[in-house]
Amino acid sequence: ATVVRLLQFENHWYSRHTRLLSTGPVSIDEVCLMHCVFLFIGQAYKTTLFRNVQQMAYSLIEYRSQIVSGTLPKDDLVELKKKVTAKIDYGNRILGLDLVVRDEAGNMLDPDQTSTVNLFRAHETASRSVDDRIQEEKVELLCRYYSTPRTLSLSPTVHTYSLLMNLKNFVCNIGEDAELLMSLYDPDQSEFISENFLVRWDSMGMPKEIEKLNNLPALFTDLSSSVLMRPRLFLVCQIIRVGSMELKEGKKSTGGLRRPFGVAVMDVTDVAHGKTDDEDKQHFIPFHVAFAASGSSDLFACLLAGLFVTLKLLPGDLAQVRKDYPHFVDRSTAIVRKMGFPEIILPGIVRNDFYITLVQGEFDRGKKKTPKNVEVILSVHDDNGTVFPGAGYDGISEYKSVIYYQVKQPCWNETVKVCLHLICSQCCPIRFSRGFLRARSRDKSEKPFGMAFVNLMRADGTTLKDGRHELIVYKVDGKKSEDAKVYLGLPATWSDVEERERQTGKQFHHTGAIPVTKDSFQITTLTCSTKLTQNVDLLGLLNWRSNPEDLEQNLQRLMEVEGAEIVKFLQDTLDALFNIMMETSEKDTYDTLVFNALVFIITLIGDIKFQHFNPVLETYISKHFSATLGPKMCVVFFLLLRINVLFPADCRDVLLPLVTDQLSGQLDDYSCKPDYEACVQLLSTVLDHLDRKDVVRVWKNSVTGKLKHPGHYLACMTAILKQMDDMHYAHYFNTFKTRLDIIDFLMETFHMFMDLMGNVFPADWMVMNLVQMQVFLRAIIQYSDVLNKFFLEPAHFNKPLWDNYFLLTVAFITHKTLQLETFSQEKRTKILNKYADMRKIMGFKIKEMWNNLGQNKIIFIPAMVGPILEVTLVPEPELRKDTIPIFFDMMQCEHNFSPGRTFEKNELITKLDQEVEGGRGDEQYKVLLEKTLLEYCRRHRYLSQSGEELALLLSSLLENLLAYRTITHDESPEHRMSCTVNLLLTRYLYKLRDLHLDCENYTEAAFTLLLHAELLEWSDKPCAPHLIPRDGQHQWTQQELKERLFQEIICYLDKGKMWEKAIELGKQLAKMHESHMFDFVELSRLLKQQAQFYENIMHSMRPQPEYFAVGYYGLGFPSFLRNKMFIYRGKEYEWLEEFSGRLLSQFPSAVRMTSTAPPGTTSLNCADIQCFTVKPSLSVPHQFKDKGVPEQILNYYRANEVDQFQYSRAFQKGEKDKENEFATMWIERTTYITAYRFPGILKWFEVKSVSVEELSPLENAIETMESTNEKVSNLVQKQACDPSLSINPLSMMLNGIVDAAVMGGWPTMRRLAFFNDTFIQQHPEDHERLEVLKQLIALQMPLLADGIHIHGEKATEQLKPLHNRLVTCFHELREKVERQYGVVTLVRCQMQTQFNPKEVGGVTFTDVITGWKKVTLKPNLTKLYFENKITGPPPTSTAFNLVC
Fold first, then answer.
1. pLDDT class for 667, splitting at 50, 70, 90?
2. Which of 1253, 1194, 1183, 1204 is nearest to 1439 (CA)?
3. What pLDDT, on a 0 to 100 scale, did the predictor assign at position 1284?
4. What is the chain's alpha carbon radius of gyration, rounded to the nearest angstrom?
């Protein structure tokens, strides 16, 4: 019961931590994991994911306990099993496991006992179910993450929704009857979406249907997801007062008038989007009082007025909602339809609604001073028509509009629905009704003053077009205006007037049987009918019996009808087409037209815009298809899609030839308009019911590239091939008349197989993929026999056919489905038990077919090297052992055909590089490849030497490639560079360049490209393929590519401030342009560029990099670093601590050594890093020796073009002198020589040799004085050349030498006691070294004198006291030195530079820049310097330049 915090798990051991026990390992057997709690620190959102997994596990445990209890009824047990399997399948998909296919009872399907087509359909069904579940989970998780409660998500599989609204109460004391009209409204589009839900309220504030008090439900149906996902959606309630014109009027006034009273609006966007879904929550919608046109209020404002409603979004259409939510929707619920069609119109649904909206009007007030109070009365003058002012009440014969008080241009925007009842008979199949509008003024007389009408059906049989119509207002003139025979002959709208005038050429007379008024009146109409259409062409097809002579034209014009209009009348259209086909069966006149029309409709529904109508077509085929079976292809086409009782033996012989004949015609390459999707559905049904003994013809068309869903075809083809045995294959190949026909078939089949072995089936359809591969294996073996039988002899040998065969077999072996090593042990065992390792079978067949080639093998070299290499790299030992010898066989073929030919070798190296980089190959392959090739080659008389060399070369290359691949994902670019540099192939040079550019190592990037450039010549020869850059598609000549590389290299060198090297390459380019290319324009640019580089050398700041020695000791490092020492070139301004920190960050477990001495014996798994600073040894170019060279030029060579480095360590030798420790202080100097010079293709190189020497105290003193003099000289030069430099460094150096007696100055050397008689007598061999030390001390004086002189000129007033102190100390020091060691005079040379001389005490400091030409010393010392005969170590070259 101890609480254990699990820190880590590895190799069956936990790393644990408890409150009572210290951290340490504990065996897994000692821990009972009763309850794991994961803490996501900083990742709280993952807690939800964990809770979901936890809940799923708990659910499965609970389900299992119920199943094993044995107490569940059979039906409940089946349902519970379905739940369990659904959760398991969902979890498998989340975990990336294979999809498990099951039958209806939840049991796993056995592929041996299930037809291939059914197996495919089961995969489709299972995959779709899991996808839907995952999509729902994603939406729910997203909502939870954003803290959005949601119980209903808009699923892509649900096309229609319904909104349930329940009006609980309406609080407002109006005092008269009222009507509440509630509808959905889109404020952005300014349009109403639904009809009105009508509720009548009495004057006592109660609903007129008192039994519905506090419960007035309405269901807004046919709402598609596109409607609900609009940016904003409002619920609008219009309140209409029904009574007198004004409330203050008494009972004697006219009643029953509909007057606007107010409006209430609620934003229901969140409900529509599914963000809120609480059916018990009552929403209060405040009420806003309307105002009359005069500006006075109709009623006092009531602050508490408003509505109380509840809302709930339900998935499904009306029928589905009534089925799934009977407790919400019953007979008392008002059904509010959408003003328009739903997203899916199922067959059998009949709707014939016309929505008429009274928009606005303008009425002449006549002789009155005030406008009329206008009321519009709408009535339907047909026994079959009814007006519905709103859902919830029965229809009425006439509808009265709202009255606006004395408004000349009233705007109503009132919508009513006119419902028409269709009467069908043999002579009149469809009959339409007509409606008209009548208006009157609500004054005391209340007589109608105008009338307008509109015909809902046009003369051509179509309905009135949707949209706005401006009606003609006729004057009411007695009985004539009531006689339909009179006014129906008149135009109804002004557009009708224009049409009549255009047809007759006569102008319309406003004074006819019924006069026309000056008034105007506008309406809009919207037709929602599944029986009446507004399209003439579609109507002509539906009524084809009335005009059979136009049938051909109507069938052709059907293709031009808009898709949206066709899907509205899908059932009627399909019925009409099949009736045409059946009733005109004696003639073939319309067969093609009808078939094309059917294909057009099916294709239309397959379009993404109408794909949600697929269920409509499925329903029609299964429930409403009424045609009888006949010999027509279309009948067979549709029937076989859904017939599940196929076929009795007596009719199979009749049906199969018909089906195969039609399929062959559709799938033929020359078919003008094939319908592949329909064909595959038909073929699937046939195959699913065929017995395994029947011979089915294999079609040979590779149509996968043309299909939208090739998986259907692959399943059908697999089913066919699975049912074929050896006899079927033999029979089929005997049907070919010539070898050319067999070649065509095999070539198409090979290409098709390779296409189908791609990604047709998803990766988790493991069973389907394995069945496919098993069937393909058997087919390929059959085709192998055909190749051996017909195409092996030289006379009939066909290389392209064999090429495609080998490529197919290689693709089969390397298919991801068959790579058993990537699967778990349990899954691997199951596959091997059921299917065996199909790779080995195919690999043995490849070797057999290769051996059968005989003398034809040579034509497959080197093309087959790559494919065979892919096979040998498959990690299956037996397969490798069987196929690797093919390489030796290729070598033999090359040797026998052309000794010395190396195509196979070059191709093998190139392909091996590509394959290993792609992730193939391992250490076992390297060992087996080397062992096998050596074994075969050493037994061969002529290939023993060359074969052994190739085997070792491949082994070495493979080792480097594997190391490179291992380190590719290493975060350290240095490690990747180290492995890349071992692979000196052109494409790896560019990989190395890119790594350098990522790290801004421009100098190293330049030297890397220089390796490629050095492989090229200045000639017009074309570049060999291996010399072309990886990204280069252009066919370069060697000269073009080399020039391009030089320009890129110079650019990188400029960025790296390596101007000396850039000038060197620029000179080569300039020479070529001057002497060979004669491109003087480019030559001019190059010379200007070189001039700029020279300027940069003399004036630009260029910090010298530090160099560091690094040693890696112990097995904790990679093999390319282990127990080796390297010299690293640091970055600009990078010091030791920064560099070592960067180094240790690459190896967090490594420990930095504190000693610079070589390490002793290290432990097995240690990782020790040794890191310290080293100094490069200057090597002055020969052209600069014995010449005065500016420091700016020499500074480059102090840190560049070096491969020798030194590290000095002081130590005491002998008995320490307490009075002067320098007398016994020796120097141990270690010299490191690297494999390559710096800079180079890397920022580090391995140390190849190390030497150690010891320097005596006197030699150490000489070096110290030389170093001090050099520093003084360099600083003086800089101060003389650049007056803007700060004087502080010069002040510190002078003060340290002449005053403080530090930094190696003369007083320190004097204390070394090298010049006393005792030292001289004991060390006679150091006499010349003592003289050199004396002269170096004497040489320091004129250098200090120049420095003090410059210091005096540049010193400010604040520094004058310091300068005076320095002058005093220097005079004392110089007097002592000249007295003991003599005077050194510097003889100046003539000015040799472009700088303006600056005279300082008679000495031009320009001479300091160019160097001293001569030093007047004692005669013997002068001779020693100039003849360089000093024994022992001479002064450094820099010091030599300073004094020579």
1. low
2. 1194
3. 82
4. 50
**Token reading at 532:** 């009446």
Please name each of the domains of the chain with its CATH number.
46-145 (1.20.1270), 160-336 (2.60.40.150), 352-534 (2.60.40.150), 983-1087 (1.25.40.410), 1107-1175 (no CATH), 1261-1443 (1.20.58.740)
Determine the residue type at 568: K
Residue 992: pLDDT over 90:
no
In 3D space, the residue among 1276, 1311, 1280 whose CA is nearest the CA of residue 1294 turns out to be 1276
The pLDDT value recorded for residue 973 is: 55
Would you say the C-alpha torsion 734, 739, 744, 748 has a positive or negative sign? positive
Q: Is the N-terminal amide bond of 862 cis, ω within 30° of 0?
A: yes
Q: Which amino acid would we find at residue 634?
A: C
Q: How far is CA 1084 from the centre of its chain?
A: 48
Q: Return the residue matching tokens 């009157």.
A: 440
1232, exposed or middle or buried, with CB in 10 Å at 0-12, 13-18, 19+?
A: buried
DSSP annotation string for 127-143: HHHHHHHHHHHHHHHHH
Instruction: Provide the mean pLDDT of the chain.
Output: 77
Please answer whether residues 518 and 408 qualify as being in contact, where contact means their C-beta atoms are separated by less than 8 angstroms.
no
Q: Any bridge partners for residue 306, and if so which?
A: 171, 286
- Stretch (H or E) spanning 1245: strand 1244-1255
Average pLDDT over residues 247-258: 71
Q: Residue 621 pLDDT more than 50?
A: yes
* Lowest-confidence pick of 515-524, 1301-1310, 1370-1379: 1301-1310
Residue 1016 confidence (pLDDT) above 70: yes
> What are 386's strand-pairing partners?
419
Residue predicted with more confidence, 174 or 236: 236
Residue 1198 contacts by C-beta under 8 Å, 6 or more apart in sequence? 1104, 1176, 1178
> What value, to the nearest 5°, has the Cα angle with vertex 330 and ends 329 and 335?
70
Are the beta carbons of 210 and 354 closer than 8 angstroms? no
Which range (107-121, 322-336, 510-524, 625-639) has the least confidence? 625-639
Q: Which residue type does 478 have?
A: G
- Burial per residue of 927-943, b for 16 or more beta-carbon CB atoms within 10 angstroms, e otherwise: ebbbebbbebbeeeeeb
Q: Output 426 or 77, whichever has higher pLDDT.
A: 77
Phi-psi region of 443 (alpha: psi -120 to 50; beta: other; left: phi over 0): beta
Local confidence band at 1162 (pLDDT 50, 70, 90 cut-offs): low
Q: Which residues contact 538 (CB under 8 A, 6 or more apart)?
A: 558, 561, 565, 566, 569, 573
Q: Which of 71, 74, 1 is nearest to 33 (CA)?
A: 1
Residue 661 CA to residue 35 CA, distance in Å, equals 66
- Distance from C-alpha of 124 to C-alpha of 1382, rounded to nearest angstrom: 105
Report how far residue 771's alpha carbon sits from residue 776's, in angstroms, rounded to the nearest whole number: 9
Give the model's pLDDT for residue 1003: 92
Dihedral pair phi/psi, residue 1229, rounded to 5°: -110, 120
Question: Letter for the amino acid at 358?
Answer: L
For 1298, residues 6+ apart whose C-beta sits below 8 A from its C-beta are 1305, 1344, 1348, 1366, 1369, 1370, 1373
- Please spell the DSSP secondary structure of 875-897, one letter per residue: S-HHHHHHHTHHHHHHHHHHHHH
Q: How many CB atoms lie within 10 A of CB 357?
A: 17
Cross-strand bridge partners of residue 1250: 1232
Pick 700 or 125 by higher pLDDT. 125
DSSP 1356: -
Q: Which two tokens stand for residue 517?
A: 């008024």
Q: What is the pLDDT of residues 741-792, one digit of tens each?
A: 999 999 999 998 988 886 788 888 999 999 999 999 999 999 999 999 999 9
Site of tokens 């003090």: 1348
Please choose, from the candidates 518, 563, 560, the residue with its C-alpha nearest in 3D space to the C-alpha of residue 540. Answer: 560
Residue 703 has pLDDT above 60, yes or no: no
